[in-house]
Design brief:
By secondary structure, the protein is of the alpha/beta class. The protein is built from 10 helices and 6 strands. It has a single domain, classed as Uracil-DNA glycosylase-like domain (Uracil-DNA Glycosylase, subunit E). Helix content is 38%, strand content 10%. The chain has a 4-stranded parallel sheet with strand order 3-2-5-6. It has a two-stranded antiparallel sheet with strand order 1-4.
Length: 248
């Protein structure tokens, strides 16, 4: 018997979100804005195709549990084509080839790390997410073939809380009660929307490394993204702060 959509949506966070994030964010799920967001999603799902699939809306939380986050990279809106969005910003599912922005990300990775060989066919960033990179969109769903169709419906309020949660996190290295706390993160803010998001959060630059540049989109990559050395700078900062094992 098929489970009613309302029931699926009512328990979606508990069923699909990593427990570390669910426990940290569960206060959001009872707030009025989140109830309105769920009503909107129910209406959309009843008459339209929505990406990513329900089980992948929070896949970022499963690939990168709260205590594992070392680097935060945000995008705006999920890809709106078939076999693309799966819950991680800039990432696409096979057999979709890497989109233009991701190809530029690969170019910069190859520039920073000569041993890195960019894939022409694989745009799935899940392995990178599992290493501690939080690939988070500020809006977590989209109607098929209609960019930004789910913006300003409540997701941005929620993902702002996600960012606040990880920025305020305190974690003892190796789980030792008296160990050195890994509070600091590397934050990569590509493009004005990302930079404005982090500006509003008031980043403590003594605690975190904030790296800003143009967006990797073909429209702006040559205006400051390519050549920004963000991945190399991130690794150097993590190693200096937390030791060799902290590097991605």
């Amino acid at each position: 018997m098929e489970i009613p959509l309302k029931v699926v949506l009512d328990t979606l966070e508990q069923d699909t979100m990593h427990p570390s994030w669910y426990n940290a964010l569960k206060g959001e799920f009872t707030k009025p804005y989140f109830a309105q967001l769920k009503k909107f999603l129910a209406t959309e799902l009843a008459s339209n195709t929505v990406f990513p699939t329900l089980e992948n809306i929070y896949s970022w939380s499963r690939y990168t549990p709260l205590n594992n986050v070392k680097v935060v990279i945000i995008g705006q809106d999920p890809y709106h084509g078939v076999n693309q969005a799966h819950g991680l910003s800039f990432s696409v599912l096979p057999p979709t080839k890497p989109p233009a922005s991701l190809r530029n990300i690969y170019k910069q990775l190859a520039d920073d790390f000569p041993g890195f060989i960019p894939s022409k066919t694989n745009g799935n960033l899940s392995p990178v997410a599992s290493q501690g990179v939080l690939w988070l969109n500020t809006c977590l769903t989209v109607r098929a073939h209609k960019a930004n169709s789910h913006s300003k419906k409540g997701w941005e309020i929620f993902t702002t809380q996600v960012l606040k949660t990880v920025l305020q996190r305190k974690l003892n290295i190796d789980g030792e009660a008296d160990g050195k706390q890994r509070e600091g993160l590397v934050i990569m803010a590509w493009g004005l929307p990302a930079q404005k998001t982090f500006q509003q959060l008031g980043i403590d630059k003594k605690k975190h490394l904030l790296l800003q540049s143009a967006h990797p989109s073909p429209l702006s990559a040559n205006k400051g993204f390519l050549g920004n050395k963000h991945f190399k700078k991130a690794n150097e900062w993590l190693v200096e702060k937390y030791g060799e094992d902290a590097a991605d």
